[in-house]
Specification:
The structure holds 2 protein chains of 2 kinds. The longest helix of chain A has 25 residues. Chain A is extended. By secondary structure, chain A is mainly alpha-helical. Chain A has a two-stranded antiparallel ribbon with strand order 1-2. A two-stranded antiparallel sheet of chain A has the order 3-4. Among the domains of chain A are: 94 residues, Orthogonal Bundle (Cytochrome Bc1 Complex, Chain D, domain 2); 99 residues, Cytochrome Bc1 Complex, Chain D, domain 2 (Orthogonal Bundle). Chain A is 52% helix and 3% strand. By secondary structure, chain B is of the alpha+beta class. Chain B has 11 helices and 14 strands. In chain B, the strands form 5 sheets. Chain B has a 4-stranded antiparallel beta sheet with strand order 3-4-7-8. Classes of the chains: A mainly alpha, B alpha+beta. Chains A and B meet through helix 8 of A and helix 2, strand 2, helix 4, strand 4 and strand 9 of B.
Chain lengths: 292, 390
Amino acid sequence: MRFLNRSVGRLSRHRRRPFAGLVLLLLALALTGGLYALLSPASSAQSDQTEADKAAKGRALFLVSCSTCHGQNGEGLKTQDGKLLGPSLIGVGAAAVDFQVGTGRMPMAQPGAQVQAKDPSFSQDEIDELAAYVASLGAGPAIPSKNDYDPSTYESDKAKQEAVTLGGQIFLTNCTACHNFTGAGGAMPRGGYAPRLLDTDPKHIYEAMLTGPQSMDTFSNGNISPQEKKAVIAYIESMREQPGYGGFSLGGLGPVSEGLFAWVVGIGVLVGFAVWIAAHTTRSTKKKGTAQ
Amino acid sequence: MTEPHDGSHEIQAYADELLPDPGLEEHHWRPTDVDPKAERRAERQVATLFTLSAICTILFVVSYVTLKTGTDGQVWLGWGASNLTLGLTVGGALLFIGTGIIQYARKLMADEELVELRHSASSSKEDQATTVAALQASLDESGIGRRPLIRNSLIGAVGLLGVPAVVFLKDLGPTNHDVTESQPYAGAGLEHTVWKSGMRVVRDVVGTPIRPGDLEIGDLVNAEPEIIFGKEKGVSLEESEVLEGAPLQIAKSKAATVLLRMNPDDIVSPETRNWSVDGIVAYSKICTHVGCPISLNERTTHHLLCPCHQSTFDLADSGKVIFGPAGRHLPQLPLGIDDEGFLVALSDYPEPVGPSYWERNTHSVRDIFEDWQDENGQAAEQYGYKETDL
């Protein structure tokens, strides 16, 4: 008790300091915020809410963050001169929302040739709610389950190896034209590009094939079957683990980066070496016959 | 300048006035010239460099023999060990020889400085006059100018000598027409592919047939004819009819096709619409420029881009070239549906696929379509085709 009294006394001595009021205010705010976060009804929401509840919450999020371009009912909007502001979302399905919002492409930072991936603005729960709302607008592809896309769910190593082989052939036939045979991506017309696949989440790769984001073709389940899609993902994963057999991959972008490296670094080093050789004199100030 | 204008004298005149010859500087010796210890050290350095090169070469052979390649090869620091050591050792071997030679030349080879005067590059006036006079004299003596009969017959005879070369070159190989006539195997030659009426369009790699209902708007399928997978209407072919080896690879590369489902309202040209099924169109995958395989399609615009030289084709409008160096539109494969509901070709491509060649004609899409309809229209009706006047 004496100890407490002494501490309070010590603190109390500071009460007339110039910043005492500010510190007290901040402490009070932090306490209020903390208590609210603990006790407020929002954070105690149950996870077993119905799809309708989720869709309702998703609609609230949608009205705030998406409706400016996609319209209040997801019907799509055009600008006054007839250009597309945001496409209709009716029938794009939950998978499209999970991909676009989950990779941070939506909400879009700015219009342009390419929608950039960035850190997602919503939590996975919020994305699920948005997806539930957009799925309620019209039937479309659903978010795949882990078993659909995750190559670690193959029952044996042999099954996985077979999938990698099949997936490689499908990848080389259908995907390399734009995404490069190393999966490093590549340039597309009018400033667009096909993104690099090596760091993309397997779920997002699956959803991209299913829904065809931006100018990508769709590879629906009638085109490339779900098993084949999983095999393609297994192949992309195997490329991630592959060591650089040819040394530095230089981004795997082909002749552009390799040529640039050869011209700038390769020839640069040789020129530097030549300059260095010529800059060092081999001459001596000594006369012949004097040094013995 | 009253002196006669022969070049060397003129240069001399300027040099006398403007630049007095400074002569050679006093020669500075190299340490290796004056110090026997330095000389021996340089000698040892050069020999060491050559020895290092030899060691690298030996290491190259050793690593080539011992290190494994392929998927089960050794990996060092995330790199394939074999390629890494092969590159480093052969690079080192060449580098050490080069460095050794430079060190040798700079430190030990003879070190003399000397002056070489520059001379005019042209011949002297007298030599030029003599040569021209000699040429003129021989022309006059031959009398070729006075005898046009001889001159013209000579020009004719020499010119005609080109003809045997043309005749020989023409018959070096079978012409495209000969190949088309003889057909050593299905779809041989540049004029045709293995596609034919009623052949099913199947997915590349897996070889499964496609129903229109399988595809959604925006789907792109890389397709091949069913014969590539040794089947006809889902039934395996007899062994004698199955393509294999080089003919299989040639047939596969020429028949490669991209299948695209678009909104039927997006299709622009009536030819494309007539050859499509429910918005599904099929085009050759071989660029008409120099034959690269193309499948960089933009779903939103239906533009197919060739990665080699950026030729761009509009798939909604008869494969028209809208950008790039390609000279001809992309050939379209007429599609129909067989009695089991699978997509089939109504015929071979109505025109040769791939880049242009010597005997190839170019016609408008309308002419190609009308010729095709006259020839194949009736037979195509069994696959749901309706003859139309455009």
